[in-house]
User: Which sequence fits this backbone?
């Protein structure tokens, strides 16, 4: 009832101005904290912000560094692609076939909660030391979220949509393309966003444990060689990439999901 | 019935600062006699719910006064008022019995009296079968009955209902209306019912107030003249048609304003 | 047979079938025993190691670290979540941070934490807290947001006062979502701590697995792995069914 709209306090348009300022303050606070930790530990654990940025800038001029970045990106993109395609497919199947979905869902959800890192030795034993192990590990992390979210979205599709498809006499392919996927798109994109972060995590963890190439390896070897600026710079780079990608995907998802305000 | 009105509203106005500033309600002048059944009808967005909020003290008027039993309200809900809201206000984590008893959680009555009142309310509202069920297991109409029962146990002297049957189908509404009349007669309370259903207002009330589009003001006050012992079968009375049409004719223009059309 | 039981039966059958298949493939040599050992050997190894008492120190170490991280995360998370809920200005600023938090692989901070706090329990607890707290914050916010406005009006109509409104209305109404947060907190704390122990630690179950792997003691490694996975599944499973019971009563809300 529009009556109810009068019950709530007026909208927060007035606050947008302070939000920008507050965000800036928060950013400065975080940088300040970083600086404090860096100087208090005298660069033994973390190198201070300015030094890190300069080191990172310097790193980016070295071709060896880009070799590592390429190694991580290659493994990650493969892991993400496999997770996405496999996950979407499985999610659609499990969502449409109720029984199979009900059987599989707790198993998938359970897999999500176990410390997959303990399975990494098995991955190494099966795939050997190399890129395929990293990719496999990335897929292990990234597959489940997209599967579960797609499964949920398809399963929760309002029955009226499918009935409409039948009334319009749409063949299964068109039903999927014109009704199913668009309706599930918000959750699918959510799942992709999660899978993105988790595949990246998987690949990085793999590199941190046993690899001679990649950003994860650089991070760990930096610590081993007491090259703190290197480790901090790598962490900074990963953080920037992760947050940047996440925000880009959020923006993308907003364009595709006009339903939810 | 005493001579002094039970509830008095004088010059009540409710504005919101905004942005943008909104003149939601008023000025409203209203006297409710003790034991009266008064309905309020009006187009959507006219401020009916705001009227209820101001009446019981959930909101303060921007100007004007509200008095209950001779005492002015100051932003607090006084003792003796029961409210049934439009949305489902049943507590999902309590059984029906516990929900109803919740009304008396703050009271200092002995446990025996509390149990008696709860049992009585359960029986009165026909919930005996479901006393140990959870609200999620009940239909919307039953959940509203639980909320009404919860108000009942307090023995309020003024009962306010904000479109309590809004989500129900027509037939259930008519039956619930009968229950409401029973409740009203048994408790002797003053009842103010907000509804958008003209027939409901016409059947149930002693008087009906028609509110204009925003900012809401009373544009008509209709006396029904019904006997106290009435139920939904009064729709067969010839006056019912006349009443309902009078209400609609008063309301039609206002409703069209709300819909954005010219009368 | 009800559908629920049928689903359960099929699930058990499929899982048992996979385990059986693995067992057979290992025994007949299709799968290299140096890579994967038969499940029955895994179980035997697990019982051996756990039963022998050699693992006790590592177990106590790991479980106490996880417990500490969990309790801290829950306390910090609910407190800060409640704080954010009250201050909309603070919340506006922190919201985007929270939303992006889990896109960053928290684990990459672990080596820096070790350098900061020296090897031991502290960096593990900090890692666990860093992993788990935002989830609790987000579910606290969701829980408090999800209290239906009409119930707050009800509280005022019944003149409950702020304390009683919180205890009798807000808390019970928010509980399911809060509990989801606790469940996630345990999951993330467990994962974080074990992963940390695995990468860089001197004690703990994660370390024990890593050590077994590096010593080429596959049998011990698989036994320990199975144990850790079972603990994780059981712990999470308990909380999950508890959560389910809480939600089922209120289903439809």
Assistant:
């Amino acid at each position: 009832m529009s009556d109810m709209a009068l019950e709530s306090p007026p909208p927060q348009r007035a606050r947008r101005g302070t939000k920008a300022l507050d965000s800036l303050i928060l950013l400065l606070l975080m940088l300040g904290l970083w600086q404090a930790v860096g100087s208090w530990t005298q660069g033994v654990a973390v190198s201070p912000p300015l030094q890190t940025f300069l080191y990172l800038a310097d790193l980016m001029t070295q071709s060896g560094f880009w070799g590592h970045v390429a190694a991580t990106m290659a493994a990650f993109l493969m892991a993400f692609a496999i997770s996405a395609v496999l996950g979407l497919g499985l999610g659609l199947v499990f969502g449409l076939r109720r029984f199979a979905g009900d059987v599989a869902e707790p198993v998938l959800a359970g897999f999500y909660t176990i410390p997959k890192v303990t399975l990494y030795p098995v991955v190494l034993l099966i795939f050997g030391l190399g890129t395929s192990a990293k990719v496999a590990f990335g897929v292990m992390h990234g597959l489940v979220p997209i599967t579960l979210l797609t499964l949920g979205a398809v399963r929760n599709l309002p029955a009226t949509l499918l009935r409409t498809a039948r009334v319009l006499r749409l063949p299964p392919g068109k039903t999927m393309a014109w009704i199913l996927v668009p309706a599930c798109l918000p959750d699918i994109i959510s799942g992709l966003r999660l899978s993105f972060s988790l595949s990246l995590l998987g690949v990085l963890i793999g590199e941190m444990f046993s690899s001679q190439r990649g950003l994860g390896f650089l991070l760990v070897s930096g610590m081993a060689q007491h090259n703190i600026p290197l480790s901090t710079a790598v962490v900074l780079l990963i953080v920037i990439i992760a947050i940047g990608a996440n925000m880009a995907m959020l923006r993308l998802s907003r364009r595709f999901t006009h339903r939810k305000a | 019935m005493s001579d002094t009105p039970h509830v008095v509203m004088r010059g009540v106005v409710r504005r919101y600062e905004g942005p943008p500033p909104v003149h939601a309600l008023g000025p409203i002048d209203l006297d409710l006699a003790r034991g009266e059944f008064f309905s309020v009808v009006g187009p959507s967005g006219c401020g009916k719910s705001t009227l209820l909020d101001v009446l019981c003290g959930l909101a303060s008027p921007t100007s004007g006064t509200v008095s209950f039993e001779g005492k002015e309200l100051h932003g607090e809900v006084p003792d003796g008022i029961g409210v049934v809201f439009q949305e489902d206000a049943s507590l999902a984590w309590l059984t029906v019995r516990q929900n109803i008893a919740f009304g008396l959680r703050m009271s200092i009555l002995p446990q025996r009296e509390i149990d008696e009142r709860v049992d009585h309310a359960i029986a009165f509202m026909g919930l005996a079968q479901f006393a140990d069920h959870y609200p999620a297991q009940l239909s919307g109409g039953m959940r509203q009955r639980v909320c009404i029962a919860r108000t009942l146990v307090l023995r309020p002297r003024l009962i306010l209902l904000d479109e309590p049957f809004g989500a129900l189908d027509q037939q259930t509404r008519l039956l619930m209306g009968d229950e409401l009349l029973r409740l009203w007669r048994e408790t002797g309370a003053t009842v103010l019912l907000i509804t958008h259903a003209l027939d409901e207002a016409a059947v149930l009330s002693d008087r009906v107030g028609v509110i204009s589009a925003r900012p809401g003001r009373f544009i008509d006050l209709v006396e029904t003249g019904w006997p106290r012992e009435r139920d939904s079968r009064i729709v067969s009375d010839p006056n019912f048609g006349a009443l309902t049409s009078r209400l609609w004719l008063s309301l039609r223009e206002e409703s069209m304003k709300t819909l954005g059309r010219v009368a | 047979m009800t559908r629920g039981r049928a689903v359960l039966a099929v699930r058990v059958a499929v899982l048992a079938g996979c385990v059986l298949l693995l067992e057979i493939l290992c025994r007949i040599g299709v799968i290299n025993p140096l890579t994967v050992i038969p499940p029955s050997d895994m179980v035997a190894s697990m019982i051996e190691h756990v039963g022998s008492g050699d693992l006790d120190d590592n177990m106590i170490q790991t479980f106490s670290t996880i417990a500490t991280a969990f309790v801290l995360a829950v306390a910090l998370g609910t407190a800060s979540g409640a704080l954010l809920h009250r201050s909309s200005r603070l919340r506006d600023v922190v919201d985007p941070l929270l939303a992006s938090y889990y896109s960053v692989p928290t684990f990459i901070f672990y080596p820096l934490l070790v350098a900061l706090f020296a090897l031991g329990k502290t960096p593990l607890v900090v890692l666990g807290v860093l992993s788990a707290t935002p989830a609790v914050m987000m579910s606290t916010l969701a829980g408090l947001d999800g209290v239906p406005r009409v119930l707050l009006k009800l509280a005022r109509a019944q003149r409950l006062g702020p304390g009683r409104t919180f205890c009798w209305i807000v808390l019970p109404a928010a509980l399911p979502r809060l509990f989801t947060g606790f469940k996630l907190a345990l999951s993330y704390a467990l994962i974080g701590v074990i992963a940390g122990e695995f990468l860089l630690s001197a004690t703990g179950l994660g370390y024990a697995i890593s050590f077994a792997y590096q010593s080429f003691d596959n049998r011990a490694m698989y036994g320990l792995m199975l144990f850790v996975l079972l603990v994780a599944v059981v712990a999470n499973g308990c909380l999950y069914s508890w959560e389910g019971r809480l939600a089922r009563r209120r289903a439809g809300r």
